[in-house]
Amino acid sequence: MSRAQDRKDYPISMRLPEADVAMIDRAAALKGRSRTDFVREAAVRAAEVAVMEQHLIRMSEVGFANFMEILAAPAEAVPEIVELSKRPAPWETGYKPRP
């Protein structure tokens, strides 16, 4: 049996305000996607996040002790981030991007 025959699609129908549809269409166009593809991808991504937020993380007592030790350790400065934080923001320098 071919892969196309094995595939099962399940329709989802919803009613949305015109403004929501316009926003979705605009975003989909910016991404070069159809409305259906854009909404499907966004819904699946949101579902994955919701499921992962509920995921239980298990570890051994030793692993947990090591994890807590790392969290309790003093933070170490990252030189690149320190340097970046000292730079003025683009809106503070009058920076104008090229058209």
Structural summary, described in words:
- The protein is mainly α and 99 residues long.
- The protein has one domain.
- The protein contains six helices and no strands.
- Helix 2 (18-31) packs across helix 3.
- The model has no long low-confidence stretch (mean pLDDT 91).
Could you tell me the radius of gyration in angstroms? 24 Å
Structural category is: mainly alpha
Order of helices and strands: HHHHHH
Percent range of helical residues: 55-70%
Dominant shape: flat
Write the layout of secondary structure elements.
Layout lengths: L2 H4 L11 H14 L3 H19 L7 H12 L6 H8 L3 H4 L6
Task: Give me a quick take on this structure.
The chain has helices spanning 3-6, 18-31, 35-53, 61-72, 79-86, 90-93.
List keywords for this structure.
single chain, 99 residues, mainly alpha, 6 helices, flat
